[in-house]
Amino acid sequence: MTKKTILILWVNLLLFSIVSYSQISPGDLVEAHAHMEGMSNCTECHVLGNKLTNEKCLDCHKEIKSRIDQNTGYHASVEVKGKECAKCHNDHHGRNFEIIRFKKDTFNHNLTGYKLLGKHIELDCQECHKKLFIVEEEILEKKNTYLGLSKECLSCHKDYHQNTLSKNCTECHDHKGFKPALGFDHSKTEYKLKGKHRDVDCIKCHKKEIRNEVDFQEFSDIKYGKCTDCHADIHKNKLGQNCTECHNENSFLEIKESKNFNHNLTDYPLNGLHLKVDCKKCHKVKLTNALAHNNCTDCHKDDHQNELDKENKDPDCSECHSVKGFTPSFYSFEKHNKSDFALNGAHLATPCFACHLKGEDWKFRQIGLQCVDCHKDIHRDFITEKFYPAQNCKVCHSENQWAEVKFDHNLTDFKLRGAHQKQNCRACHFPNSKTGIDTQNFKKFTGNCIDCHKDIHYQQFDKEGSTNCTQCHNLEQWTIENFDHSKTLFPIDGAHEKVTCKECHKENTNEKGKYIIYKLKEYKCADCHS
Prior knowledge:
Number of helices: 13
Mean pLDDT: 84
Strand content: under 5%
């Protein structure tokens, strides 16, 4: 047999084999199964005289069988369990065929046993399902797999705390984000936050640093046994390290009233209201700084503005005040009566501020020399200097009571007689006024009765612009004892003596009002008798 004949036989045999195989195999296997290509490998997946079986698949894919046996993972879910593998993963469609395929947008991740929450829902599958996060070594060799991941946070996320805290991140964090750590409760730690510590930003105590060449924030092994572990000792250990003997967590400025700093050990024991004063009121810079305290004015403003300093030295406030309070003053009536203004009458009941605190500052000198220094002069420009020299109120008024007035009216041109002696001053000098300020009258008196009294006769008895009521009336009572009809133009005699006044003097009404006519124009008998 020639070489040419042998070559022809080999070519025919090769063509026969190709044709025969193509009649048995439906197509090329995917890349992952390519090593099982050929008729001699068919039984790796197929059973003679039968189709594919799950057992054959699971003999090779042991990682899937293990999960099914443990009833965990997607292949053990109600959606997959009991189905044939080939329903989802059939082959012979070519080397580049995606044997693992599903709709990512509609895939129910809950069936895998790991429910996606929070930020995990927004992630693309490949952000988690990559070799970097696979923890099972036997799966690392596989390509395009979704298996081998762990449910532990640190299997995908970097341990920011560098093994200083629990590996169970969900004890503090949730799936929505690492910050803020909503699950963290400081009250469950060994150091419970109280007072102002609740408002302190975490970074104040939990410092950031670079550890192992990466950012790190310290949350464990924080020293907290003493306040000075975090706070500077401004007392420089002069008062010991137990700050809570004086301070609390609410504020350093809030000093405890019991078991606190004993101020009596200093050169200035606290008494009276000083016990309630905030430390910072006196210790404005540092509590340990020495303070001047020999004189009250070292801390307190001299409201008297050195008015009481007669010898050019700091006043001794204790002469009038005590540490229990500026009021009441201990300045006694006896001391006041030794001054230039002795207290008498109503002045004894007048509070100090009424005279000495007219404005913002207290005044003690050059006041009270005249009544008008304290009292408003309501008579100014109303009473002449003759009766009111130098605005001296005491000419008329008494210090016992302002309404107690003593004035000799005989010094005026109008001597008080009869009922006038019983009237108070206001009746004449403050007519028709409740306040007695705008309508007071002291100068404009002529001596005419009608200056004060209403002329009910409407000038019937007026002579030259003046009406003398005393021609008829008595000053003791408003009777007509002084009237004598015989001195008129019509003397009364005979039967007229029995006639009453009103039978002749009739009531008249006009624009002025009602009044009785006493001045008759004529006196004819026919005027009265018909």
